[in-house]
Amino acid sequence: MSIHPRLHAITERIRQRSAPRRQSYLDAIAAVPRDAARRHLSCGNLAHGFAASAAETKARLQGGATPNLGIISAYNDMLSAHQPFEGYPALIRATANVAGATAQVAGGVPAMCDGITQGRAGMELSLFSRDVIAQATAVSLSHAMFDSTLYLGVCDKIVPGMLIGALSFGHLPAIFIPAGPMPSGISNQAKAKVRERHAAGQATRAELLKPRRRLTTRPARAPSTAPPIPTNCCSRRWG
C-alpha cells in the first residue's frame, strides 16, 4: 500500500527527531538482564514478594526458574467493559499453574468512562487519567518479580496508559487482554425516537432510561464503534 507523500514526510520527520531518545530507550532495555529479575532480589525482598501467595506458588517462586506472570488489571464495577475482569486473575493463575508457571496481580489501575461522565465535571479528568494509568502500571511492575505481563483493560484511556507503562519495562513480553463485545438490545433509530419524545416533553425520565438500559445490556465492551473497538484493533496490530 502506497503512503501519501505528505504523510511519509511527517513520519520521517518524527522518526529523525525522536531517533536519539529512541536509541537511549532501546539501549536501556537492552541493558536489562534477561534472566528472572527476582533472582537479583534480596531474600527479604523476595519473601515479601510472595508472602501473600499460596504455598505451592511460594515454593515455585523461591526457586527462581519458574516463569511468573504479572497481571495489571483495570477491573471495577462501574464500567461494563471492565467488570468482566473480576474473575480473570483466578483463571489466569489456575491456567499458569497447570502450565508450570505462576501468576500474581501486580497492581490495579483506574478506569473511567466518558459515557458516565459526559457533561459532568468528571469528564475533565478523562484524558489526564491516561497519565495516572501509565504511572500506576509502571509502579506495579517496579517490584521486579515478573518474567512477562498481562494487561486487562479496554478503551482509549486505559489501554494506551497501560502501554506507556508497559514500555518502561519493554524487556518483558506483554499480552493485552480485552473483555468481549456487548450485543445491543435496541436500534439507534428506536433510541432516537425516545430522545425526541423526551425533548418534546412527551416521555418521562423513566421512559428515556429504559432504552439506554437495553443498549448497555450486560458486562462487556459497549456496543458502539467508539474508542474500545479501534483501541483493541491497534493492540492486535502492535502484537
Automatic annotation (TrEMBL):
Boundaries of every Dihydroxy-acid/6-phosphogluconate dehydratase N-terminal domain copy: 67-212
Keywords carried by this UniProt record: Lyase
GO molecular function per UniProt: phosphogluconate dehydratase activity
Pfam families, per the entry: ILVD_EDD_N (PF00920)
Enzyme class, spelled out: lyase
Ribosomal protein found in the keyword field: no
GO annotations of cellular component type: cytosol
EC number(s) on file: 4.-.-.-
PANTHER family with a match to the protein in the record: D-XYLONATE DEHYDRATASE, PHOSPHOGLUCONATE DEHYDRATASE
Protein family per UniProt: Belongs to the IlvD/Edd family.
The protein, known as: 6-phosphogluconate dehydratase
Protein's organism: mine drainage metagenome
